[in-house]
Amino acid sequence: WLSRKPDRKRTKILVVDDEAQVGELFREVLPATQFFVQVAQSGREATNALAMDTFQVAFIDLVLPDTTGVHLLKIIRDLHPATRTVIVTGYPYSQLLSDAFELGFFMVLKKPFTGEQIRSVVNDLAGASRTPA
Questions:
Q1: In this model, does residue 109 exceed pLDDT 60?
Q2: Rounded CA gap, 130 and 98, in Å?
């Protein structure tokens, strides 16, 4: 029972990106003792994850093989309005980003990014969204 106690305090993070290396980077740089990172490589996988669980922070790629980050942002806003969302994109000056602005999100993380940038963003957002146990 002691080994499960820290799980309740870990911040749940959803990473939606069709590039497997992006999810791997998040898992490498965020300590598993503090963060549970779930990776989805498609809109379908992300939608399933959002239906099954609540995440404190979600990193959403704007361009996915089966949908857009804007569509996923709408789902997150409907199902989990308290989730803090970060748009991940290699195209910071696109119409999709403009559409996402209308829905509201917390910040943009421009590709390519570093592990240190991930840690900084997560610490800022997770610290602001943590609730007492």
A1: yes
A2: 29
